[in-house]
Design a protein that fits this description.
alpha+beta, eight-stranded mixed sheet, five-stranded mixed barrel, 33% helix
Length: 486
Amino acid sequence: MFQAAAKTLSVATTTAATLTRATSFSLRHYCKKTPAKLRVSQAVSGAELGANVRVQGWVRSVRPQKANLFLHVNDGSSLQSLQVIASSELNDPLLTLGSAVEVTGTLRKSPHQKQPVELEADQIHVVGDCNPVDFPFKIKERHSLEYIRQFPHLRCRTNAFSSLLRIRSEATTAVHSYFKENGFVQIHTPVITSNDCEGAGELFQVETSGLDNEEGEKFFSVPAFLTVSGQLHLEVMSGAFSRVYTFGPTFRAENSQSRRHLAEFYMVEAEVSFTQSLEDLTKVMEDMFRSATEHVLAHCAEDVDLFHKHVTPGHRDTVEAMLKKRFPVITYSEAIDILNQSSQKFTFPTDWGCDLQTEHEKYLVKHCGNVPVFVTDYPYDLKPFYARDNQDHPKRTAAAVDLLVPGVGELCGGSLREERLDLLRARLEEVGLEDTYSWYLDLRRFGSVPHGGFGLGFERYLQCILGVDNIKDVIAFPRSSHSCLL
């Protein structure tokens, strides 16, 4: 009996000791601090210096040595990559340019001036391998924008294009911030519409695919198209909100593969109510341009410098000059006089009544000091039906304005809208659109006010501030005639 009791006591003691050790291990495991996950931008700024951290990204360079291994890892959060130092024992044949990795180690201050910090790796895990032979980008080669354009699914892995996408993102934020700070209400205008705002007929028609509709039956009951502008929908909203804007994709079925045109691009459009002055519109255009550009230069300094130093050397001076000077204003008639007095031979005519071509626009910009310039009061017949008639016979002009900028030409186009019902109805009858736009006439019947607005081509804006020559190099997935990759 005594032996049985002793045996029971021994088992209980052993069990208790085992539970104590298990509990102690569990607590140690639970309390063990897991590595802090950092973005590369956080790591290179010195966040969590001296701490055990975890970084995930893609290898930009690999340099194995006898005792050590050096990597540069980037996750797209900054132009600067994080240098990783590891023992050569952690080298892996799968650690190549383009491979995806997860690195754990201690973040240290670097003894070298070229990088402020470095990561001393304890573990390197290859998440996704990359065959360096087949990968189209090489470590020691600087690839041109033309070359990387061939690989729309991979070019975001390059320094130049990742910088462009960060700049584009920041510029988008800057545009929204400007409008929010200045009392504009954002309107999500439709992508599918029955309107042809520009009246040029360069439309993508929307039709169903794979549906057994009756012959001739339309999904929307009327012809529907991808939008060329959100302006007319903004005009609807300007009857209830004094300041509205939209920022979204627009489409033009223009059969062109030039470096200036895209079939899909982004437009910033605004409409201002209770205004009878083009100066109200030009002020918004100029202020938005300055605000967005200053924001981008402040928040994407390294990325912008990459373009200004390696893609378009010297363009920084042009950008700074644009920000220092007020934008001059000339009339269309003055512009025609300047062109006709020039010694330069133009391909297109410069007679009064002719539309300004890119060669004319670029010349006018240079003539005015290579800064953005507003051109106002275009011939009435050159502008769409909604442009306000200046009634300035014999040279009949419209209250319209374009903003021309260095290297690009036209960046913004806008006008006061015709708010006078009788004149608008006569104009619509003249072009045979009175029935189609009966709803537009209603806007003038019910509480109409003088108003105006403009549109800015977002890709052209990026070209302007970065100096990029081809518009296909400032959008993630360019669409153009005979080209719709991905």
